[in-house]
Amino acid sequence: MMPLTIYPLLLPLIGGVLLLLARFGGLKLQRALSFLLTSGLVFIAVLLLQTAMDNSPQVYALGNWVAPYGIVLVLDQLSALMVLMTSVLAIGALWYAMSTGMDAKGSHFHVLFQIQLFGLNGAFMTGDVFNLFVFFEVLLLASYGLMLHGSGRLRTKAGLQYVVINLIGSTLFLFAVGALYGILGTLNIADMAVKVSQLPESEHAVVAAAGLLLLLVFGIKAAIFPLYLWLPQAYANASAPVAALFAIMTKVGLYAIIRVHGTVFGETAQDLAFYYIPWILGFGLVTMLLAALGVMASRGLREQVAYLVLTSVATLLIGIGLNTEAGLSATLYYLIHSTLMAGGFFLLADMIARGRGHFHDRFDSGPMMHRAVLLGGTFMFVAVAMTGVPPLSGFFGKVLILSAALTSDWFGWILATVLVSGLLMIIALARSGSLLFYHTQPHIESDGERCNRNAYVAVAFLLAVSPLLVIFATPVTALTDSIAQQLQQPMLYIETVLGTPAVTG
């Protein structure tokens, strides 16, 4: 029997092929199959996390070719958490797509959706840099199709920008991978860490340069300053379920930084140990300030949500940049909050836009929409959570990060940046809510859609994470503490990957 580690990849891959064949059976069959597959992925992800929490990292060698020569999948606590978050976000986005009929506005939505999940899960589970590149390409190819799903001039324009910037990123990724392989002779992450620990001093500079080039590539994926300009328009113009699923895309870049740089350039990397950390922290602070200004300057709600995604990326960068166990734990708590809340906010923004008719999501005074109290109350709930105002999870996440930063030399800058950006976001979202829900024009007859109850279920499902993270703060922080503790022991990961023998008998 195959180990559980391979199933997060097999299920969406086989599902994608089945859905391609199922299109001859009609949309209902595709929907039923897609929802069943994604629900199954949630179930498997829960089992994966349970397994990862109870055991040391587990390695699955594809074709029984062991590391560093073969392709290996590695299940540890961090990869299990990322797979679980991806599947939960996916089930909410998929339900919304089916409830609103967005999946019917183009070909192969469900096929691309499953292939996207295959690429995401592969990126979280792979144990070598080259296959990280391959899975990046798989998820990007699927995302190109999903980005353009439903067509439209602005969507096509934003999609082309998205494609171009990611093609540049992929090219740079190959350059970085080639340079590292040329020096180290391996691309297995664990083996790279061993080779860097034995590297002669004369080759430190070129490996450091290649590592920074790789950091640049991950920065493009994560949308770090000054590489984030593609994100606001791409996310704002994508269809709502696609934008919700894309909330995990920036986290792939952040995950890659933690996994690759945290392992290869960890404490055993001689003079190169953690040399990238000041870059992470500095760019995180700048990204946060500029993203907060973008939140204020946004002309529509979906664009504003896209800039809020950037502020969450910046907050996570600061947590990673602290480079402590407490900082990583706080980062992971905020990662769960920000990913699922951003996904839910994209869906809510779409419901508001549909309810306002031709006013769409622009910040113009429009007619009263159907179920305005429900949608307005939900907007206020999300605004409180996303801006970090008590008592929801955004506040707790930021407090945890600030607490972890108390011993940092950068604490003054971090505190000032978080407070100023938080204030700017509060002002911006208060203005947005006022324009959308209070300064309405009752004499204008609305041509908007009625509130879709089934679609609202997906919104409520994703937004429920915020109170749950507060109510279950103790077990959740125990979980993130355990993951952070494991990440602070890179030798455990390295020895497990390189020490796992081939299966015999």
TrEMBL record:
Quote the InterPro entries the UniProt record gives: CPA3_Na-H_Antiporter_D (IPR050586), NADH_UbQ_OxRdtase (IPR003918), ND/Mrp_TM (IPR001750)
> Does Transcription show up as a keyword for this record?
no
Subcellular localization, per the record?
Cell membrane; Membrane
Q: Where are the transmembrane segments?
A: 6-25, 32-49, 69-97, 109-126, 132-150, 162-184, 204-230, 242-261, 273-293, 305-322, 334-352, 372-390, 410-430, 455-479
The alphabetized list of GO BP terms reads: ATP synthesis coupled electron transport
Taxonomic path: Bacteria, Pseudomonadati, Pseudomonadota, Gammaproteobacteria, Thiotrichales
Q: Membrane topology per the record? A: Multi-pass membrane protein
Give the species this sequence originates from: Hydrogenovibrio thermophilus
GO MF assignments:
NADH dehydrogenase (ubiquinone) activity
Q: Name one GO cellular component term.
A: plasma membrane
Q: What is this protein called?
A: Monovalent cation/H+ antiporter subunit D
**What's in the keyword line of the UniProt record?**
Cell membrane, Membrane, Transmembrane, Transmembrane helix
List, for all copies, the residue spans of the domain called NADH:quinone oxidoreductase/Mrp antiporter transmembrane. Answer: 127-421
Q: Does the keyword Cell membrane apply?
A: yes
- Tell me which family the UniProt entry assigns to this protein: Belongs to the CPA3 antiporters (TC 2.A.63) subunit D family.
Q: Which residues form the signal peptide?
A: none
- Domain of life where this protein originates: Bacteria
